[in-house]
Amino acid sequence: MKKILLLTILITNLLYSADLTVIINNSNLKGTAYLALYKGKEGFLKKDSVFKGVKFELKQNETIVNITDLPSGEYAYIVFHDENENGTLDTNFMKIPKEPTGSSNNFRPKFKPNYNDFKFTLDDKVTQKIDLK
User: Fold this and answer.
1) CA dihedral 93, 94, 96, 98 (to 10 degrees)
2) pLDDT by residue (tens digit) across 44-102?
3) Exposure string (b/e) for 43-81, b if CB count within 10 Å is 16 or more?
4) Contact, 100 vs 68, CB < 8 A?
5) 107 CB-near residues (< 8 Å, 6+ apart)
6) Could you state, in order of their start, the residue ranges of all structural domains in the chain?
7) pTM for this predicted structure
8) DSSP, res 44
9) Residue 35: enclosing H or E segment and its boundaries?
10) SS3 sequence, 67-94?
11) What is the fold of 2-131?
């Protein structure tokens, strides 16, 4: 029984051993920001499908967000500065963000966001630098 428990712990540690670091260049923005991490294509950009959400304070010029102990796999994320502190990303009638945003791979869509442009593989440690505009 002890061998099975030890093996289960070892496998769990291997599955949840990936770390994501996001370095956010945010010029002179200050205040609350959010990072919404999505695991896989299913539910991408849907509020109820966020795999891990992180609320943090922006530091002037550069902010570093670390998310540890994630399962390996395919991910995408969106970051936004909550300028009016209402807890949501404000958009116009065409769903274009009215608050500064950034995303995985530092991708900036011109039209409707496509998951394939945002996705990246997390299998150990990944660091991405993005701009919040």
Assistant:
1) -20
2) 999 999 999 999 999 989 999 999 999 999 999 999 999 999 999 999 998 889 999 99
3) ebbeeeebbeebeeebeeeebebebeebeeeebbbbbbb
4) no
5) 117, 118
6) 2-131
7) 0.85
8) T
9) strand 31-39
10) EEEECCEEEEEEEEECCCCCCCCCECCC
11) Immunoglobulin-like (2.60.40)
